[in-house]
Design brief:
Chain B: Heterotrimer of A, B and C subunits. Chain B: It catalyses: L-glutamyl-tRNA(Gln) + L-glutamine + ATP + H2O = L-glutaminyl-tRNA(Gln) + L-glutamate + ADP + phosphate + H(+). Chain B: Belongs to the amidase family. GatA subfamily. Chain B: Its EC number is 6.3.5.7. The complex is a heterodimer. Helix content of chain A is about 35%, strand content about 5%. By secondary structure, chain A is mainly alpha-helical. Chain A has a domain of about 40 residues: Histone, subunit A. In chain A, strands 1-2 form a two-stranded antiparallel sheet. By secondary structure, chain B is of the alpha/beta class. Chain B has a single domain, classed as Alpha-Beta Complex (Amidase signature (AS) enzymes). Chain B has 15 helices and eleven strands. In chain B, helix 5 packs parallel to helix 6 and helix 9 packs across helix 11. The longest helix of chain B has 24 residues. Chain B is globular, with a radius of gyration of 21 Å. Chain B starts with 8 loop residues before the first helix and ends in a 10-residue tail after the last helix. The chains are: A mainly alpha, B alpha/beta. The interface between A and B is large, with 53 and 75 residues.
């Protein structure tokens, strides 16, 4: 399988990465090189094989549903580019 | 006494215990060496004040006969590890001047045991690379050069700052991480030792995530023994990482020097790849002979799905990365580029913040997870991962204790030499190491000889799950037989 330029633009949008028109052909070449490389997986018969979900067999650990941390709003917003009263500020999303 | 920076971590520990040196002296010697070696670009942030304060506190504890297993020993920390109050960037512009309000579990255990932090080490951006050339801080130069040449070589990647700093004697040891070979390949390129432990052995909490089902923390240091000492402090159960394993941490150092008599070491025929340089093949033979001479039985084994590990990895790892890196959106931390609405803000922020290799991998990951392609790519790759793991299980079920392979397909290459036109050219560096991540196994890279142009070459030992001890025992046999690598004289 290979991607065309429209697909490159669609993937970039899904990934939320702006790409310029000049970058599209180059990205198309790079992505197709990787897709060509992984094409060889089609040689392998995987019928009846379970996909891996956990590399080390283990039971998912659980803990009590209780507060273990908190009261550190200053620390949490400390690295944000824009904040007000412990809120993260973003451009308006609802009219 | 010889130059303090020439000591191994174990020698420095013993010198501190015997009061032949102080942590302040050793730390001071490394801070001086770091300043003189800035041209290598191994450190992206030096923390001399913190280092000296930690060293002073260690000296006070040592004077009272107290102190942990790493008391007073100065280390470098890969910039993927969150360090409280100290800038952590994963060497990406998108994190900007991120200063964590928390400490990664692994580094907090190092400080608990008395270690001293010298600074943060360079790496490929988000650990995506095999040469340390994708870092937003620029490439690291290896302290190694080819005989009779001044051309700059790569220290490997992604833990290239770690490997270069250890080889150039800018720290006693370093933390590193390994998703597809990022500890073992740089160790092999620089004549140092690095171990990727079993998945789950070290907590991933507080380490910037790349591909969560493959990432593991581990050390790079100058000897097998130094690795064993560091791993004991780094490993252990952490309730904050649900994939960390609740098993006791053995005294790994006790395994160094233990006999390997009667052990079965497998040689996988599928690692004899087309176009493998004769000197790599010869090194591999020599390694097997050394282990045989130490009493091990050498057996040929088969891992039939080996060749599919790398292509499957280039589906699984980008897929997980595209999900993990979705958090870099310009809202909660890092840089923000304004846009006319929130989507444009995301798109511009991520375009400005991610480097080329990261963008490429996020896009591939997005594609293979997108509607209509998920089964053909992602599910298929995870099925192949099951087959790769089964190959290893079958070999271990035959009584094999560990598997010997080359660590890399070649010695270190030049800065700017690979991956310019085709990204896959760079990916092929990890052909011998990536299988280990796909199967979640432990693997160690040990220097075993030199290339014809005077560069270090390494061998890899792959172990059974949670049997790092056998790797330390067998790794030390290779280290002893090969003789300690003479590290390059400072030209920098």
């Amino acid at each position: 399988m290979s991607v065309d330029q429209a697909t490159v633009r669609r993937i970039a949008h899904l990934a939320r990465i702006a790409v310029t028109e000049e970058e599209v052909p180059h990205l198309q070449g790079e992505l197709n090189a990787i897709l060509d490389f992984v094409e060889q997986l089609n040689e392998v018969d995987v019928s009846g094989v379970e996909p891996m979900t956990s590399v080390t067999p283990m039971v998912m650990k659980k803990r009590q549903d209780e507060v273990t941390d908190g009261g550190i709003a200053d620390v949490i917003v400390g690295n944000a580019p824009m904040t007000e009263d412990h809120y993260f500020m973003v451009p308006k999303v609802v009219e | 006494m010889t130059d303090l920076t020439d000591l191994t971590l174990a020698e420095a520990r013993d010198a501190l215990k015997a009061k032949k040196a102080s942590s302040a002296e050793i730390t001071g010697a490394f801070l001086q060496a770091m300043e003189a070696a800035r041209g290598l670009n191994a450190y992206v942030l030096e923390t001399p004040e913190q280092a000296l304060a930690m060293a002073k506190a260690s000296d006070e504890r040592l004077a009272k006969g107290q102190g942990g297993p790493l008391e007073g020993l100065p280390l470098g920390i890969k910039d993927l590890y969150a360090t409280k109050g100290v800038r952590t960037t994963a060497c990406s512009n998108i994190l900007g001047n991120f200063v964590p309000g928390y400490e990664s579990t692994v580094t907090s255990q190092l400080w608990r045991d008395g270690a001293v932090m010298l600074g943060k080490l360079n790496n490929d951006e988000f650990a995506m690379g095999s040469s340390n050339e994708t870092s937003a801080f620029g490439p690291v130069k290896s302290p190694w050069r080819r005989e009779g040449s001044n051309a700059a070589l790569v220290p490997g990647g992604s833990s290239g700052g770690s490997s270069a700093a250890v080889a150039a004697r800018l720290c006693l040891g370093a933390t590193a991480t390994d998703t597809g070979g990022s500890i073992r390949q740089p160790a092999a390129f620089t004549g140092t030792v690095g171990i990727k432990p079993t998945y789950g052995r070290c907590s991933r909490w507080g380490i910037v995530a790349f591909a969560s089902s493959l990432d593991q923390a581990g050390p790079i240091a100058r000897t097998v023994r130094d690795n064993a000492i560091l791993l004991r402090s780094m490993a252990g159960h952490d309730p904050k990482d649900t994939t960390s394993v609740d098993m006791p941490v053995p005294d790994y150092e006790a395994a160094v020097g233990r006999s390997i008599k009667g052990m079965k070491i497998g040689i996988p025929k599928e690692y004899r790849v087309d176009g493998m340089p004769a000197e790599i093949e010869a090194l591999w033979h020599k390694g097997a002979e050394w282990l045989r001479a130490a009493g091990a039985e050498i057996v040929e084994v088969s891992l039939p799905h080996t060749k599919y590990a790398l292509p499957a990895y280039y589906i699984v790892a980008p897929a997980e990365a595209s999900s993990n890196l979705a958090r870099y959106d310009g809202v909660r931390y890092g840089v923000r580029v304004p846009g006319k609405d929130i989507v444009e803000m995301y798109e511009k922020t991520r375009a400005a913040g991610f480097g080329k290799e990261v963008r490429r991998r996020v896009m591939i990951g997005t594609y293979v997870l997108s509607a209509g392609y998920y089964d053909a790519y992602y599910v298929k790759a995870q099925k192949i991962r099951t087959l790769i793991k089964r190959d290893f299980e079958q070999v271990y079920a035959q009584g094999v204790h560990a598997i010997l392979t080359p660590a890399t397909p070649s010695a270190a290459f030049g800065v700017g030499e690979k991956g310019g036109a085709d990204p896959v050219e760079m990916y092929l560096n990890d052909v011998f190491t990536v299988t280990v991540n796909m199967a979640g196994l432990p693997g160690i890279a040990v220097p075993a000889g030199m290339s014809s142009d005077g560069l270090p070459l390494g061998l890899q030992l792959i172990g059974r799950p949670f049997d790092e001890e056998t790797l330390f025992s067998a790794g030390e046999v290779i280290e002893q037989a090969a003789g300690r690598t003479k590290l390059p004289d400072p030209w920098w």
